Amino acid sequence: MRDRRHPAYWGFVLHRASGVALALFLPLHFWALGQAIHGAAALDGFLRLVDHPLFTLAEWGLVVLLALHLAGGLRVMALEFLGWRHRQKDLVAASAGFAFGIGMMFLLHVG
Amino acid sequence: MKVRIQRDGGMAEYAVAARASQTVLDVVTEIQREQAPDLAYRFACRVGMCGSCAMEVNGVARWTCRTHVSRVVGADGVLELRPLANLPVIRDLVTDMAPFFEKWSRAGGQFVPKDGVVPAEFAVVPPASPQRREADAGIECIGCGVCYASCDIVSWNADYLGPAAMNRAWTLVNDERDGARAGRLRAVAGDAGCHSCHSTQGCTERCPKGLDPSGAIAGLKRTIFWGLA
Is the ipTM value over 0.85, yes or no? Predict the structure, then answer.
């Protein structure tokens, strides 16, 4: 087994996995927006799904993925463009904490 | 204690008495002297200066001479030793370091004096200058290969220059006496160079000297991005 038991690697995996998941979501997003081509009624009909609890759960997942990818990306850019070499483990923890916090804030606004 | 050692593609098992302040290198040496005289491994200084005794100890690349058994032995009392990852194995625990050092050369790891001649006088480089500090940050590398064995990118792309070679290149890029900056930055800017690094930071995490090759690679990326050749 390869040696991957350290926080910076987990940070990389979270950043990469969230990026792939968001890329997979994008076609769905554009398809949903594309319903508007068939008129307001078609779009509104589709958007009624938003009220379903499963949709809200998926939306929460999307928000957490976006927060993870944003925070993880800012961490890597700080390393590469600003040369923030130190406290990388703290930055990984902070970016995970940021995503967790955003997820909790979303849940507070549900309902 | 049970010790498993990778030999001839399989794992050989030995039993060694646990002792106080025992290092992993002590264990390997005891096995070779008492049980398996044909066991191949490499060491020289035994005090963390030469970097030749690096191996995979329970899945993590380490200097065996500076690793106490008590700190790494598994909960099951097993010590598992393999040769450094990402390098061809010559025999048992001995790897061929040639590809590793060949990449230092490919990354422009040689110092080239400005104007092609070494000046008669010592160059005065202010110790507090930012470039001197950047050079200092990576200059203590002894080429043990622990970072190279811990690098995911090397395992994905065998041509990837790796952390140590690029740490060396970054040190020279920051050496104001050096005259090969542009060529060196070109050498590390290819597909197998700094831009392939995903900043997984296995190198920085495992460097026994506490150096930060990942930060050095980030420095190369930054310098090339802003066109500071």
Answer: no
Q: What is the pTM of this model?
A: 0.91
CA distance A102 to chain B (A): 24
Q: Tell me whether residues B202 and A5 touch, CB distance under 8 A.
A: no
Residue extents of the structural domains in chain A: 7-108
Q: Best mutation site among B58, B80, B148, B200 for testing chain A: the one with the most A CBs within 10 Å?
A: B200
**What is the total count of domains within chain B?**
2
- Beta-carbon separation of A2 and B155 below 8 A: yes
For B205, the closest of A1, A2, A8 (CB atoms) is A8
Count residue pairs from A and B with Cβ separation < 8 A.
61
**Domain A7-108 is of which CATH architecture?**
Up-down Bundle (1.20)
Long-range contacts of B68-72 (CB under 8 A, 24+ apart): B68/B21, B68/B22, B68/B23, B68/B24, B69/B1, B69/B18, B69/B22, B69/B23, B69/B24, B69/B26, B69/B27, B70/B22, B72/B24
CATH of the domain at B64: 3.10.20.30
B110-123: pLDDT as tens digits: 999 998 888 888 88
**Which residue segment(s) compose the domain that B173 sits in?**
98-225
